[in-house]
Amino acid sequence: MARIGVFVCHCGTNISATVDVKKVAEIAKGFPGVKFTTDYRYMCSEPGQDLIQKMVKEHNLTRIVVAACSPSLHEKTFRTCTQNAGLNPYFFEMANIREQCSWVHDDREEATLKAIDIVKLAAAKVGKNNPLQTTFIPVEKRVLIIGGGISGIQAAIDVAFNGFETVIVEREPSIGGRMAMFDKTFPTLDCAACILTPKMVEVNQSDLIKLYTYSEVEEVSGYVGNFKVKIRRKARLVDENKCNGCGTCWQRCPVRLPSEFDMNLGKRKAIYVPFPQAVPNVPVIDQEHCLYINKKKCGICKKVCPFEAIDYEQKDEVIEEKFGAIIVATGFTMFDHSIYGEYGYGKYKNVTTGLHFERMLNSSGPTGGKIVRPSDGKEAKKVVFIQCVGSRDEARGMPYCSRLCCMYTAKQALLLKEHNPEAEAYVFYIDIRAAGKNYEEFVERVQDEYGATYLRGRVSKIFQRNGRLMVRGCDTLSGTQIEIDADLVVLATALIARPDAIKLAQMLHIPYDQNRLFTEAHPKLAPVETVTTGVFLTGACQSPKDIPDTVATASAASVKACGLLSHEKLPIDPQIARVDVEICSGCLACQEVCPFGAIEKEEIVDRVTQQKRWVAKIAPSLCNGCGACNTACRPGAIDLDGFTEEQIFGQIESLTADKGDER
Amino acid sequence: MKDNRSIKERDLGSKPAREKVKIAAFLCKWCSYAGADLAGGSRKKYPPNVIVIRTPCSARTNPLFVWKSLEKGLDGVLVSGCHPGECHYSEGNYHTRRNFAVFRKLLEYIGIEPERFHMSWVSAAEGDKWAEVVKDVVKVVESAGPNTYFSKKKEDNG
To answer: Fewer C-beta within 10 Å: chain A N or C terminus?
Structure first.
């Protein structure tokens, strides 16, 4: 018979303010199997844990219940404590009387009664816990990084520095991501390319970093330490090993198309590298527009290539590789402002976005660094910037603040003035959010030194009058309505999750929030981890981040990944399903519902009949312990350690024990 | 008026068991349980009638658990998991949805008030929603009153 000890935590006054902890401890003495109960101010503190260990010895306890906070916070702490007390770590249950009791109820009596019930549940369960042994699995010492923007690049460099092999999978033909598109970075006005390209080159030259550009992750299976990943390497139609990036092919290609990298402001060819500093400096052929692929005409690139690198017959290739950890660095995309009628539904050519403007500022960009009106190419002198387009707009856009728009708008206003001191910059804003090192000072400078006009208010309408854009808005500080005839309007559109973020999340079994941004394991204490062990987050795929924050999370994620990889073996959660072959009828309904392919059929010789028959067999390393098979099992042959039928039925009965007596 | 006496003074022992309805909630640990934790973290208030039983996934919640809860005299049961498509185990809650669609019919067939059984999808980010779900469920179960279906049956048979 289990000898249960119940330890009730005050959590300062977090619990004790609404729950009478002494009463809970007193009543818990009467629960079946409970031999000792007490309360303490902070159970998770060192003296608290010492108390548990001491009482285990003193009262010969074999099972522990701690009534405190949520198991997601301290289950691990107390498991270790239980183990240190000389017991199996799974001889422990947590009763959550803080998050799900004291914090959500006001009435002290009601809350105490509920806390008693919660402790009763835990006590009923803990008595039936099985001793579980942690098993270990080997670790594949490689890291997969999905996304080759600044966050993926930084993560790869950091992982390689720690001596582990990494693979970057990038969808575009070159790494570099969004940062490669920027002109200068706030608040120091470093040229983005000057600080990014050395890193890109470092990635390319490192022996430990492998680049799969123009590739996508297609399937992820396995688990921490042993992820199996299928990567589709899209047909470039150019042999990466032969090409040296001389550029003869794209100079001679006759097809001219809008360049995605230049936000369609400039042109590219059908065979192209997205930008001059591309890594790898190997072009791709745009199969949709190539004349040879579509009409069997032209073929110039193949003729002129001195290295015979062009291969029209190349096909997509799917490769499978193994990784120990995965870092997700897929970044963001821009909000589409064409839903906003007041900004012209995206139909005015001279209403652009920050990213368009960024390309115009860039001296190697499509306009050679000139700020022009896209409609006629004439210099733009009067520029209106509108902030919070799609951000902080619960009704039509995103409820959150995109965090960097205030800063990049200020930077763009400054650069506009630097490019043309005669130019005028107007900024419509709701609030200025410049929380960062030297950020506030920067925004002040843009207003004071560069004379950008900041107007607090929204723009109600943009319309055309005599061929010019009229921006009508209000200045709430002076209480006046304003009309500005602008050459160019630049919208600071929200940063949002990529449209296929959900697909990737499902592949990796990581959760995402209502805005499709990936969710970290804990918003404060595990900001780069996910609930799937071995999968880490960095950069703007998690929430909008500026470059310093992105680089910081990239380094953090790589440290976490390297930490995993530095182990020869990793423990796996023993709370998984098991089959009682005596009961199993071999129907394999469980196999149908298992999302992890962890169940296979096995031939055994029946103990009684001495005949061969099939039964279900669970692969412990693949089972994640979801329990879907338990419910699907018709004869009840499968059970889930940690959440056994006996335990849950026991919990239900304990909860209704007093109810039954009553009637 | 708020009663400021300590519990000891009021002596819980002599008080008859709660007349209020008692509801068991089976929550998956990834979404709904975390959502309930978030409700706590954001101090959202809701009625104390719901006692949570934690499961790894809503798919672990065998319809028999719900049956047992009602049979043993609980007044209502709530099963909650991640939103469809957002299951931590990728597809567990689809199984849950199907299992309980059938199970609900069984309850109706047997004659147990449909007000006693509830399902919801609450994500880890939806603390507010959890509080609302609890309020709604308690209200609906209260409208059905105490669950005497099985105790009456016993009396009839005995």
So the answer is: N
A94 in contact with B at a CB cutoff of 8 Å? Answer: no
Q: By C-alpha distance, which of A386, A390, A384, A388 is closest to A371?
A: A384
Mean pLDDT across chain A, nearest whole number? 94
pLDDT class of A507 with cuts at 50, 70, 90: confident
The count of structural domains within chain A is 3
pLDDT-based confidence at residue A624 (cuts at 50, 70, 90): confident
- pLDDT of res. A271: 96
In a mutational test of the A interface, the residue from B29, B53, B67, B129 whose CB has the highest number of chain A CBs within 10 Å is B53
- Same-domain pairing of A347 and A487: yes
pTM summary value = 0.76
The 3-class secondary structure across A127-152, one letter per residue, is CCCCCCCCEEEECCCEEEEECCCHHH
Domain boundary assignment for chain B: 20-144
- Residue A663: partners with Cβ closer than 8 Å, 6 or more residues away: B73, B148, B151
Q: CA A350, CA A632: separation in Å to the nearest integer?
A: 60
Residue that is last in its domain, among A132, A163, A190 = A132
* Rounded-to-integer distance, Cα A72 and Cα A69, Å: 8
Can you give the residue range of the structural domain that contains A468?
A: 333-496
- Which CATH architecture fits B20-144? 3-Layer(aba) Sandwich (3.40)
Residue at A94 is within a domain: yes
Each residue of A186-215: pLDDT tens digit? 999 999 999 999 999 999 999 999 999 999
Nearest to B60 among A110, A111, A643 (CB): A643
| Phi, psi of A453, rounded to the nearest 5 degrees | -90, 115
> Is the CB of B30 less than 8 angstroms away from the CB of A531?
yes
pLDDT of residue A663 exceeding 50, the answer is no
Spell out which residues of chain A touch residue B7, defining contact as CB-CB under 8 Å.
20, 23, 108-109, 112
Question: Considering only CA atoms, which of B150, B6, B114, B91 is closest in space to residue A660?
Answer: B150
- Please state, in angstroms and rounded to a whole number, the distance separating the CA atoms of residues A538 and A177: 14
